[in-house]
Amino acid sequence: MYIGRRLLRVVLCLIAVSMLTFTLLQLAPGDFASIQASGGGTVGLAQEATSEQQAGLAARYGEDIPVWQQYLKFMAGAVTGDMGPSYKYQHLDVEEIIAGAFPISASLAVGAILISVLVAVPLGILAAVRRKSVWDWGTMFAATLGHGLPNYLAGLVLVIVFSGMLSLLPPFGWDGPANMILPVLALSIAPIGVLARYVRNSVLENLREEYVVAAKSKGGRSRTIMVRHVLRNSMMPLVTVLGPMFAGLATGTIFVESIFGVPGLGRYFTEAAVGRDMPLLMGTTLFFAALLMVMNLVVDLIYALLDPRVRADLGLTRTGEESARRARDAGSGRRRPVAVGGAS
Amino acid sequence: MNGGITVSRRLFLGGGIGVTGLTLAGCGFEGQDEPEPTGADGAEGPSGTMRLAISSGSIDSLDPHYVNNVMLVVPAGLLEGLVLSNDEGNDVVPAAAESWEVSEDASTYTFTMRAGATWSNGDPVTAGDAEWSFKRLLTPTGAGTNYAAGASSYLSGLGIKGATEHLSGADTDWANVGISASDDATLVVELEAPNSDFLLLMSHYSMVLLHPASLEAMPQDWMQPENWVGNGAYVPQTWSPTSSLKMVANESYWDFASVRVATIDMVLGMDATATLTSFNSGDLDIVSANATVVQQDPELQEKIVEVPGYGITYLQRMWGGHEAINDERVRRALSMAIDRDALAAVTGGSEGGTTLIPGNTVPGWDSGLAVAYDVDGALALLDEAGFGDGLPDARLQFTFESPWLEALAEQWHEALGITLHIELLEGGVHTETRWAPFEDTSLMSFYGGTFSGLTTMSNWVNNIFGPDYVRQFSLSTEDWLAHQVIQADESLDGAAKAAALEESLATNSDPRAQEFAELAVQARGTVDEAERTQTFLQAAALREEMAFTIPLMWNSRLFAVADDVEGFAPRAAPETCYYKYLSRSEG
Amino acid sequence: MTATVKAPAAGPGPITISLPPPRSEWSRRAARFRRNRLAVLGLALVALACLTALAAPLIAPHHYATINPGQEFLPSFSPGHLMGTDLLGRDVLSRLLFSLRTALFVGIMAELLSLIIAFAVGLLAGYKGGKIDQWLMALTDVMFAFPGYLFAVLLVAVLGRSTWAVILALTIASWVGQSRLLRAQIMRMKTLEFVEAGRAMGAGPWTLVMRYMVPGALGPVLVTTSFGIPANMLAEAGLAILGLGVAPPTPSLGTMINEGYRFVQTNPELIAWPVGVFVLIMLAFTWVGDGVRDAFDVDES
């Protein structure tokens, strides 16, 4: 019931996103053909197309039918999984582009999440347990720094050090697993910062919880308490951050893709926006939106399952959803422009 | 360089008398690329990989009739036209055509296709394939017009009989176009008039041959590596439009024996700084380099190869805006107040561009065309035009940040006391607004642009800032709007519209623009070299005088090339070099 | 960090306020904030940055756009150019000062605008509830799922690369989270006793919201603001990298970093200065944000 309602909302939301994208695209100055032509102008002539050419182009780009029909035609295609060829990459259908490029972006995102968790969780715990020590201060300083470091800078430093100076890793390309290492590292720096801070605060909070105090007073070994109670409870909220973080990373790898020559989806998306490639832009936008919403849905469900208070209340009430949403907004929503633009 | 071009021109035009088939095989490239004396049977085939990063853009398509970065790779190794350019870029060598004959009046070319040459699937490369390819390019509503406007409009420079009319839709009968395959081995091309640049222009990327059968069978998928059928030295192996195109040597290529590198890996979309880092660490062999960065890096400078005269940066007067801009003296004064060498110095990799023809590389150019940097002269001219107490401010729209923009603003401010408002517009906005009359009448409006092309006089007079361009931009705002109405008029058929547009240009453009147009066409058809150059110069002088378009810089391209790379002979063409000549020195 | 850290929060999100603050609460918060030395340091840095930015025209040794031919790429600590000059011979220090101005202006204005929207949406949705709430939240869902980059491209396309276009693009990307936060705060407080009491005493909706609820929601909002401003600055830099930032000649940190990046191997100080300033400001805002969050955390009592 609840899931059905949420899914319905996702679908309605996607329709709204598609209409918004299409409308904005119609309102935006410039169209694919003229942008393409001005690019061509630098090698040939600044010449306007003849009307025959224009008619041919209009037919080619499906612009010979009313705008609303163009929209419906695309959406019908999108629903049946046939969005037609991209304007720019004529030899590829939009769904082919997404199917080919997204797994690459996603693999980077998964890698970055793994690295971030592996690094940030121990660091965060260490900082919390050794509170006010050099460890705490140093970790949090580094985390804050990483949090604010644009990932293209991180990427460049990595290229200079590991490829330029040490000649250890290939600086670009997508030929094998070795190519993944540097982009994944570049992507994970900001999430490490975010997660480490999150984990530290979460552990600190749990350390103060009554049950921990109680367990301690009963003479439980502190290690057992740490592992059994504090860590377990501290890690749960992490789930809510990781979901949207994944979505943000998977859609926000433009610089990293460009620096390391990774054929991911981010580049296609930017090229589509700049070139007004309607099918590709609609396709990628909808895909990103769907990904984000589905991730949120999954997070909400996991959160609901994990949280004893919510679990007890089998109705999966709004409260669980609310808290999840708040945690989520904290995790990535706030910095979404940056997800594409800079760090995160 | 000048010597080279004169000699070859004389060779191929032969003074216009009794020009017979000239086979240029053996001059220029073959000696240099003679296979190592290890066995004539090519016992030692191509080996190794060479990695190139010469464009930060993507390669959206491999269709040569589609204007995009395909021009970087298709002519360089994937598909071959009838001829290739020589190393200097001033003459041609045989490619898909083995030889050709030029008729006595220099207006009919009879190409003989290379015997035994095949496509990568084993099909013979025929004259019919060539005709099919050119027809596709010239078909107004066909696949070829994917705004090949750049590519297909190049054909007006070729001057093939009936081509322009066919492309514009004025004449739909292919039989009237001067391209025909008389048999599998023979392609006859008729020109409207003799054209000294014809063969060179045939080396343009849009003139490569396509494999008709695979395009017909797979209209969309033929360019996928697995479906690829080509006649070039390389075939694509993997292609990811935004990040790389990997090509391997094509064993069916007619000149496979001289191909030395087994795999060419073209890296795309890589950030400039990352590119240089990778180059320095030895991962890339040939990369394009930013001139300003090179200036700062002495170590890199030793590895730089420069291609001068690659293109030009210019200012174009826009329609509308403050009327002062319509006064020729104002435009010339603005042009005279530009310290072009200083612009070039901050931009790097450029020279001050004193004319709309890159005079540093185009043979026959005359310094008499050049506009001098003369602030006093500019002020005197303004005084004469009645703007002695000051000009209105100006604006300039462009699409990306470049150091010259602010340097120009500073120069105009200092010399003429005007403020230049720089507007960087997003690509789509720029294309939509640059040819529309600028509405704010308090500002003189310009847009900035770049052009590049073959370094011949004919190309820079007839194709780039050519007759239609010059006439169009000399129209008054009202006449331009009227011209556009004709262009958009759907009730006119192709022929009628073409006539109406020509009428509009001929009557409403500046008389000197009309004269320019006539001289340009006349020059192209002139067989005598001295006379031809003279006529071109005469035309060019008129174009400079009107100053609707103001030259700024002659740009070069810089490449950083690894020490062990040999056979890299870059030309002022988008594809830079032909991969078949590349090799790696031993040890 | 310091003694006052309480709540699990990586940012602006999960903060709960359980009681209406009595007047003296503000002084207690201030005290808590003061005890956090990093937060105070951060605040001092932020104040310094703001002052510097405001005074940029007075203290900059040169005009930011003045080109000095022949003086390109002077190293740092050259006479007359403390931080050297860039590729056009412009004074890096002067450009940096004005960049700071641009960055702070963009960061703060975008945050302010998104706060205004967020207050309107959040209060309306939270207070009215019902259909209005559902519609507004559906709107935030859509906006949340819409890629911010696309808005940035299209806005910049329509408005040109002006400072305001960038501010708008950032605002559009950030109002959603804040609206939801405010709505949640208002919804929570609606049921609190003191609000009920106010209602019983006959306070109108306006009074209820303004007198009782808004002050209560202020804490979390302050926290998001102090994290939001640097996030906006980061995003502005990102847009500049993509060629969508504030257009020249107006200098911005993003543009400076972007330009310096090209010369990172030959003239690393060109990127080091703007990055240094940028990172310092990011740190300062984050410390302030941490401090504010701790100060408003009522767990302590």
Automatic annotation (TrEMBL), chain A:
Membrane topology: Multi-pass membrane protein
Keywords for the protein's UniProt record, in alphabetical order: Cell membrane, Membrane, Transmembrane, Transmembrane helix, Transport
Gene3D superfamilies in UniProt: MetI-like (1.10.3720.10)
Domain (ABC transmembrane type-1): residue spans on this chain: 102-303
Signal peptide residues on this chain, from the entry's feature table: none
Transmembrane parts of this sequence: 7-28, 97-129, 149-168, 180-199, 238-260, 280-306
Amino acid composition bias (Basic and acidic residues), ranges on this chain: 321-332
Native organism: Occultella gossypii
Protein name: ABC transporter permease
Compartments (UniProt record): Cell membrane
Span list, region Disordered: 321-344
Similarity comment: family membership: Belongs to the binding-protein-dependent transport system permease family.
Pfam families: BPD_transp_1, BPD_transp_1_N
Principal location listed in the UniProt entry: membrane
Keyword Cell membrane annotated: yes
CDD domains: TM_PBP2
UniProtKB/TrEMBL annotation, chain B:
Domain Solute-binding protein family: 92-460
Region feature Disordered, mapped onto this chain: 28-49
Family annotation (InterPro entries): SBP_5 (IPR039424), SBP_5_dom (IPR000914)
Protein name, per record: Peptide ABC transporter substrate-binding protein
From TrEMBL, chain C:
Alphabetized Gene3D superfamilies for the sequence: MetI-like (1.10.3720.10)
Highest taxon in the source lineage: Bacteria
Record-linked CDD domains: TM_PBP2 (cd06261)
Mode of membrane association: Multi-pass membrane protein
Ranges annotated as spanning the membrane: 38-60, 103-124, 136-158, 164-182, 270-288
InterPro entries for the chain: BP-dependent_transpt_permease, MetI-like, MetI-like_sf, OppC_N
Predominant localisation class: membrane
Subcellular location per the Swiss-Prot or TrEMBL entry: Cell membrane
Domain ABC transmembrane type-1 residue range list: 100-289
Family, as annotated: Belongs to the binding-protein-dependent transport system permease family. OppBC subfamily.
Protein name: ABC transporter permease
Species of the source: Occultella gossypii
